[in-house]
Design a protein that fits this description.
The chain is α+β, with helices and mostly antiparallel strands. It contains 10 helices and 21 strands. The chain is globular.
Length: about 375
Amino acid sequence: MKKLFILALACAACAGVSAQSIYYQDSANEDMLRHTDYQDVLRQEFIIPNVNGYKVLKSDLHAHTIFSDGSVTPEYRVREAWVDGLDVLAITEHIEYRPHEGVMTSYLKGFFQGEPNKPNGKILSDLNVSNSRAVAAAVGYGITIIPGAEITRDQNKIGHYNALFVKDVNTIYDPDPAVSMKKAREQGALIMHNHPGWIRKNVDMIEFEKQVYGENLIDGIEIMNGTEFYPPIITRAEEKNFFMAANTDIHGTTTMDYVVGGQQRNMTLILAKENTLPAIKDALKARRTLAYSFGTVAGEEQLIKDFFMACVKFETFRVDGNGKRTMRMTNNSSVPFILKFGGNPVQLRPFTSRNVSVAKDAELKFTVENMWIPGEKHPEIKLRF
């Protein structure tokens, strides 16, 4: 008993030393220690293997800060993106709607014709500040920032549209939103249609959407925005040759909207040669994207299948006397998959394996229930070994 007591004391002493070792001496105050983990914020990696020789970049193409109607600074938004495992972030402040700024400049009413910082009044602000601050902050994190802006009009009559890869946000505004898009296009921007079904009864195209689609002013569309998912838009994206996106449209923090609920933030998965603005832009123009939200992946059928086969590997480890194969399916990604072989669905969680049996000369056939393709369908995978 005495030996056990001494061992317990020794373990407690070791634990105490271990706990103290994560503190270091403050350089200015001899009586103060600092905890190392306070500065050492960890990145939560979201692992996806290369697909068709391309890197899969995790991106959010729709985010706001205090420079429009968000709750945090551009610097916080960049740090948050790094912690959440992103590679690419677009800061897309509303051009026409900046309520924080309006409160701060309300004392200037009467000094200008119209409201300060309103479309019919004098623009007092440099609308590029948010992007430039994000770009500067991103250097320390290796995050690529896509400079952007959101053209924000009546959702039921016009809609909201993100201009990505802009050069000067100050010159984009026009009373005619289509002209705003054209001004952004003159800067080399790509235009994404945001949350097409938000606060509407359905996703039927309104007249303005028909107009700008017909003028080839739109390059991409959100399949998913926050908690919203629009399966019919997958078909529209394919028919109109739009890239597909899933974005947070974050105004608060992803900690509150996603992390505390055990969720990964929405991501547009971009298949690019490298993590640079030209390569990312080329990938979007080529529509090499998939939409990811709450464990669901949506996109063009062949790309969806290629993505799945890059993530999940199949290996035969036993063949019985009748030629029946026992195979191991291994998910080498952070994406969960739900597979249906004809009966009840089974889960293939990230970085886990399951066994499946295949009769001699038979093909392995199943649907991936948490993946969506045009036609509001799930992809069917057929494998013959």
